[in-house]
Amino acid sequence: MVAVPALSITPPTQPLRGSVELPGSKSITNRALLLAALSQGTSHLTGALKSDDTRYMATALRQMGVGIEEPTATSFVVTGSGALTVPDAPLFLGNAGTAVRFLTAVATYVPGPVVLDGNAHMQKRPVAPLLAALGELGVDVAAPTGCPPVTVQGTGHLAGGQVTIDAGLSSQYVSAMLMAAGRADAPVEVTLQGTGLDARGYVDLTVSAMRAFGASVQQEGAMSWRVQPTRYTATDLRIEPDASAATYLWAAAVLTDGDIDIGLAPEAFSQPDAKAFEEISRFPHMSPEINGSQMQDAVPTLAVLAAFNATPVRFNGIHNLRVKECDRISAVCTELNRIRSGLAREEGDDLIVNSDPALAGQTLPTRIETYADHRIAMSFALAGLRINGITILDPACVGKTYPGYWDALRSLGVSISDAAS
Ligand SMILES: O=C(O)C1=C[C@@H](OP(=O)(O)O)[C@@H](O)[C@H](O)C1
Ligand SMILES: C=C(OP(=O)(O)O)C(=O)O
């Protein structure tokens, strides 16, 4: 495939109408691949996402002896023996946070050393709190920089016991520990350090996925979970569409006064980002203050939409957007200001969007930097639906979670063309 350096978007002259088939959920696909790999027997996963993040997960599991076939563009057939084997090379996981965090915990089931690494962006994303928690259960794991590469000296086992996790930077540490716990030798009690959990909905998603594969997990209050050593049972799972992907289409519909059928009502999703629909449906009267802590991946979508809102919007509860694929607070702020100076500002870890409904219809030639971050590319494409002159650099970065994004917009009648470099 020839890399396309940039895409230019022409605002549609009509409301966007039509239907779009969403990709499967990244979060559920990577949980299901992992749990199926730990199960003995064959699991059929349908409606799955095929993208960079799920490819990295599947490839790493194959390197550890798991059989994974891909009979169709949206299915995986996973055959596990209940054990993992020593990979003959480091596991390269790109910038897939789920793959890195989940596999770090599960690598304890390999009877030997495992190195997990990622690209330059992933090498800046913290894993130390997860390592500390694994260490409490006796796992020999090291990451000299506190970020990948990580080396796990697996024993093929995980002892049970009590573990505390500081999930202030990522809920994925909790999800990783819980999923590993289901195959431990004895019960594991996982307790949160601190007061709360941003992105709690992703831990709920983890517990549901574990239960689908036969695990017994009790949530004990808001702060801890007890996982029984049931091991996992192979199962067939239909994966729901990706709610984060849905946010772009919901926003595209309200921005153009259109109507896009994604085949699923907002309330039918179990993923946390579906909460963003409440704010999207209020447009152009979004709330003056939006707490993004429980719908973090939707914040770039909401922030670009907020640029066209009737009144300014402050986003709070979003501090850990700074350790996603890029520093998303800074990236969104910088790129909104590139469209029109003064459109956004940072205040501590809050992002304030100084909304301007008069942006719609203007010509403001802007080349949007995307920082190798799919969500920056996908959300700023929305600005191109109302502003003339928006160009998205490195558009192929959407391949992390939504390779078909540009085609989906084109199918709705958006004109997107290769930009002159
Ligand atoms: O568990 C998951 O599937 C995810 C959890 C969230 O990350 P953090 O827990 O790191 O905030 C989210 O941003 C990510 O895209 C997917
Ligand atoms: C933060 C994200 O991904 P991950 O943490 O899984 O790399 C995302 O998809 O927006």
From TrEMBL:
Keywords: Amino-acid biosynthesis, Aromatic amino acid biosynthesis, Cytoplasm, Transferase
Subcellular location: Cytoplasm
Binding site for 3-phosphoshikimate: K26, S27, R31, S170, S171, Q172, D297, N320, K324
Chain coiled-coil ranges: none
PROSITE patterns, alphabetized: EPSP_SYNTHASE_1
Presence of the UniProt keyword Cytoplasm in the record: yes
Alphabetical list of CDD domains matching this protein: EPSP_synthase
Keyword match Cell inner membrane: no
EC number: 2.5.1.19
Pfam families in UniProt: EPSP_synthase
Endpoints of the signal sequence: none
Residues the record marks as active site: D297
Binding site for phosphoenolpyruvate: K26, G97, R125, Q172, R328, R375, K400
Gene3D superfamilies: Enolpyruvate transferase domain
Biological role stated in the UniProt entry: Catalyzes the transfer of the enolpyruvyl moiety of phosphoenolpyruvate (PEP) to the 5-hydroxyl of shikimate-3-phosphate (S3P) to produce enolpyruvyl shikimate-3-phosphate and inorganic phosphate.
Identification of the protein by name: 3-phosphoshikimate 1-carboxyvinyltransferase
Protein source organism: Acetobacter fallax
Gene name for this UniProt entry: aroA
